[in-house]
Amino acid sequence: MAIERDVVGGVLVVRLGGELDHHAVETLRDEIEQSLEETRCRGLVLSFQGIDFMDSSGLGLILGRYRSVSARGGKMALCKVNPNLRKIFELSGIYKIVPVLDDELSALRMVKEA
Amino acid sequence: MEYVGHSVLQKNYMYLSFPSRSENESLARVAVAAFATALDPTLEQLTELKTAVSEAVTNAIIHGYEGQEGEVRLRCAIEGGAVEVVVEDDGVGIADLEQARQPMYTSRPELERSGMGLTIMENFVDALWIDSVPGQGTCVRMRKVIQPDPVSQ
Ligand SMILES: Nc1ncnc2c1ncn2[C@@H]1O[C@H](COP(=O)(O)OP(=O)(O)O)[C@@H](O)[C@H]1O
Ligand SMILES: [Mg+2]
Fold first, then answer.
1. Which of A48, A79, B29, B129 is the most exposed place for a label (fewest CB within 10 A)?
2. How many domains does chain B have?
C-alpha cells in the first residue's frame, strides 16, 4: 500500500495507492490519524487516484476519518475516484456525507472554504 | 480424448484453503478473478466479482474467526456462463441473518466496519445464499453470470 502525504495550505492531503481492503486499511488508518496529529491539520483531502480496488473496508476508512476530522471541527473531501470504484461509492451513499470532487485542487478549495 | 472448449469450461473448478490472515484477502480475490478469466468477463464484471469475494473472505476472517486463527475454504466452479463461488468458515456463525443483511448493520463498529459488505455482495452478484449455524460456522455461496446463455429456440 503506497501512500503519499502533503500539507497544502494547512490541509493534509493523503494520496492513496494500491488496494484498499481490510488488510491495507488496518495500517492506513493509524498512519492517517498520526499525520493528522503531527501536522495539526484540521482539513483532510483523500485522493483515490492510485486506487484500483476498494471494498467495504475502504468505506469504513473514509467514514472513520470523516468522524475523527469532524470531531476536531475540520472538514474533509475526496477526489480522483476511478470509474471502477464509482458503483461502490454510489451503493454506500457516501456522496451524501462526504463531498467527492474531480481533482485535488477543487477538493482543497472545498475543504478550505467550508 | 478431445474436448471442445465449452464442455471443458462447464466442468472447471478450483479449491483453495488458507489460514484466516488478512493478507490472504487479496490472494483469494485474485485467484477467483484469474479463474473466471476463462469466461472472458468485462472489467466491470471482474471488479464486482473480486469485490464480492473480498467481502465474504474478510467477513470469515474478522467476524467468523474474530481475528483468531482458523481455516477459510474457497471453492469456485464454472457452470455454463456463470461462476459460482463458495466461501466457508468454521467460526462463530450468524445468529440473526436478517439483521446481518440490513444495510449498515455491523456487529463490530469499533473496528470501523461499515456494515455494507453483505449489501455489496447482494448487488454485485446475481444470487447469494448464506447458511450459518451459530457456533459452527458460515457458508456463503454466490453466483455471477458472466456470459448469459444464448436464448434457446
Ligand atoms: N462469516 C461470518 N461469520 C460471522 N458473522 C458474520 C459473517 N459474515 C457476516 N457476519 C455478520 O454480519 C454482519 C454484517 O456483515 P457486513 O455486511 O459484511 O458488515 P461488516 O463486515 O462491515 O460488519 C457482521 O457485522 C457480522 O455480525
Ligand atoms: Mg463485511
1. B129
2. 1
Which residue range is the domain that position A100 belongs to?
Answer: 2-113
d(C-alpha B150, C-alpha B143), whole Å: 18
DSSP B99-143: HHTSTT--S-GGGT--S-HHHHHHHHSSEEEEEEETTTEEEEEEE
Give, to the nearest 10 degrees, the angle between helix A56-71 and helix A22-39: 20
What is the SS3 assignment for A58?
Answer: helix
How far out from the chain centre does Cα B117 lie? 11
Specify the pLDDT at position B153: 47
* Subunit contact B26:A19, Cβ cutoff 8 A: yes
Ligand 1, pocket-test mutation among B58, B86, B87, B106, most atoms within 8 A of CB? B106
**Mutate which: A19, A31, A57, A87, vs B, most B CBs within 10 A:** A57
Q: Tell me, what CATH number does B36's domain have?
A: 3.30.565.10
pLDDT in tens, B20-59: 999 999 999 999 999 999 999 999 999 999 999 999 999 9
Contact criterion met (CB below 8 Å) for A78 and A62 = yes
- Position A72 confidence tier, pLDDT thresholds 50, 70, 90: very high
